[in-house]
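Reviewer 2 asked us to include a model.

Predict the structure of this chain.
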Amino acid sequence: MKCHAKGDQNNARWTQWTYKDKLFDELIILVFNKELYLKEAYRMTYEQAHVRVKWDHKQVVLRWDDCAEFRIRHFPKEMELFLL
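Predicted model (structure tokens):
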């Protein structure tokens, strides 16, 4: 699981990728705002994430915009208090 807390002025929409070997089966990315409300979340397999990684940049990253199909859109009712 990767978690990110984002300030209002932080527009970065990526997760640094440091996994050359498969160390996990499933990746869950949670993105919180500065008040720690959940803004967005993604769930995908290692393979689904790995093929979307941008290897040709200074930093090797997984861009969230490239993972839109894996965005979690529905959360349990019990989580409503924590959602933005």
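The mean pLDDT is 89. Residues 2-18+26-76 form one domain. We have added this to the supplementary material.
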